[in-house]
Write a structure and sequence with these properties.
Layout lengths: L3 H12 L5 H8 L3 H13 L4 E6 L1 H4 L5 E7 L4 H9 L4 E9 L3 E5 L7 H8 L6 E14 L11 H8 L15 H12 L5 H8 L3 H13 L3 E6 L9 E9 L4 H9 L4 E8 L4 E7 L2 H11 L6 E15 L2 E4 L2 E2 L5
Antiparallel strand pairs: 1-6, 2-4, 2-5, 3-4, 3-10, 5-8, 7-9, 7-10, 8-9, 10-11, 11-12
């Protein structure tokens, strides 16, 4: 179980993932050595990692897709394991409800989507059927989900090391930036000295490159911790069918809900996908019956409850912790 100081550190990193140990210590009113030890322990125990969330257009041509997979009886586990190994699969989970396996996939090129969706995924042993939805627009992503534990004064201290993106042109990403993207994706707290050594650049050049990449929003550092470690033991992917005139309003309202890790407007049989986390069944029941009820235009919803998370943002998971990368 994570301690209260552990949760405070995670909450601080959610606000400023690249904050220095000194700034984290100031915000949390503890010593820098304490922060350093605590952060190292969480990383060693495979509970926490700070990674870089790469902007879609810098990673691929085209947006991600939600994919629901039904399997033959008894085959969900083996099929999910096989699907999780596909390089295009960002997220893979065994689920109950709408499907047996839920995937989030991002194909490098639109031309490759047909092969993946029509041939490779259906060709996995045990897969009986698939259904996919194309993401048109994301209203919130996991980097904006927060533990609300810190005071306004603490948040002000951390905000000093926040980088606010100002947008970028995906066609204007140079070769050194593309190499840096790979480093930041794996380690969102990489230092200029470390990046410079890896890229064969001076520390000052690497620093300017990191700052430019962050300011332009090409990579957004984010904390990766399984929600169950933070007390959110129930996770669900909820597909909502909404009348066209209400889609934007409903999606915007859902994006502001405290459960929202990822909310997107999609093209398919559904209109909006809400990937949410809840502390328990009662909290999820309140969301479905109380919070959704007043929203206009919702005509149907389908729920897939996560039973086991195998991969999230291309990182394998085992029992709520990070697993070693697999071949």
């Amino acid at each position: 179980m994570l301690t209260e100081p552990d949760l405070d550190l995670i909450a601080a990193l959610q606000i400023a993932p690249r904050a220095s140990v000194a700034t984290l210590a100031e915000a949390l009113d503890v010593s820098a050595s304490t922060v350093g030890r605590r952060l190292a322990r969480l990383e060693e125990q495979r509970i926490l990692r700070v990674i870089g969330q790469v902007e879609w257009t810098a990673r691929a041509r085209g947006n991600p897709r939600h994919v629901w997979v039904t399997t033959e009886p008894g085959a969900s586990g083996s099929a999910a394991q096989a699907l999780a190994r596909f390089p295009e699969v960002q997220l893979a989970a065994e689920t109950a409800g709408r499907s047996d396996v839920y995937l989030a996939v991002h194909v490098p090129d639109r031309a490759e989507a047909r092969e993946l969706l029509a041939e490779r995924i259906p060709g996995v042993p045990g897969v009986a059927g698939t259904h996919s939805e194309l993401v048109l627009r994301a209203l919130t992503r996991a980097d904006s989900w927060r533990l609300h534990r810190l005071s306004e004064d603490q948040q002000k201290i951390l905000s000093r090391e926040q980088v606010v993106p100002d947008g970028f042109d995906a066609d204007d990403v140079g070769p050194d930036e593309r190499r840096l993207i790979g480093l930041l994706a794996g380690n969102g707290r990489i230092t200029a000295a470390e990046a410079g050594r890896s890229l064969g650049l001076s520390q000052s050049t690497a620093y300017r490159l990191i700052q430019s990449t962050l300011r332009r929003g090409i990579v957004r550092p984010r904390v990766e911790v399984e929600p169950a470690q933070l007390g959110y033991e129930l996770e669900a992917v909820i597909a909502l069918t909404i009348t066209p005139g209400a889609i934007q309003a409903v999606a915007g309202e859902l994006a502001r809900h405290p459960s929202a890790r990822y909310v997107s407007i999609v093209a398919g049989t559904a209109s909006v996908i809400h990937q949410g986390v809840f502390r328990n069944e009662d909290e999820m029941a309140d969301f479905l019956t109380r919070d959704l009820a007043p929203l206009p235009g919702i005509t149907a919803l389908q729920v897939s409850v996560v039973l086991r998370m195998l991969r999230r943002y291309w990182l394998y998971r085992e029992d709520g912790r990070f697993a070693p990368d697999r071949p």
